[in-house]
Amino acid sequence: xxxxxxxxxxxxxxxxxxxxxxxxxxxxxxxxxxxxxxxxxxxxxxxxxxxxxxxxxxxxxxxxxxxxxxxxxxxxxxxxxxxxxxxxxxxxxxxxxxxxxxxxxxxxxxxxxxxxxxxxxxxxxxxxxxxxxxxxxxxxxxxxxxxxxxxxxxxxxxxxxxxxxxxxxxxxxxxxxxxxxxxxxxxxxxxxxxxxxxxxxxxxxxxxxxxxxxxxxxxxxxxxxxxxxxxxxxxxxxxxxxxxx
Length: 245
Prior knowledge:
The chain has helices at residues 2-19, 28-53, 57-68, 76-86, 91-100, 110-128, 136-154, 219-244; strands at 105-108, 156-160, 164-167, 176-179, 183-188, 193-197, 208-212. The protein is an alpha+beta fold.
């Protein structure tokens, strides 16, 4: 709920800046129409936020998201907050799956996403308070940073499945799938986790490795991630030994 509230405040600040023509439109009609439009959407998002506070989180989050669309990319903060507030708390069941080394589990690069969002918002505020003609590039940079921050917070860095894991390699490249039995060893470093692996049926090929930016996880999530990975790799090694035996 805190993220959603911050998003509402940022949307309101944007609306205030538009009403004062801080963005250099120099057209009274455009400023007036845009201001009333923003006020209408912002009011709708406030109604949604109040409904979420009253316990109607599902309906309230929908209204909050709709009311924040007009403010994108800045509105992505409120949209992300609405999604986060309605997500179910699965920590207990997740820890059970990690202990057993079975089932599905996902981990998001929340720390990295927060860093990108924070930097993007700062750059956007500088852009809002500056002359658009001289700092137009700041608007594009802030938009990219905010979008990337939301993407990292909403897209799993690693997905654990029953017999394999999926590694997120960025918004451009496709996810890499690795079976647990293909992982030879794991190096746990300060900012990353290095997986050494060899594809099944290709024993003559040299070992490969891939890094997972585990430094982007929150401290608590990183401990759970390493536990989940360790348990599943051990189970995959045991299964491979049984097959070879």
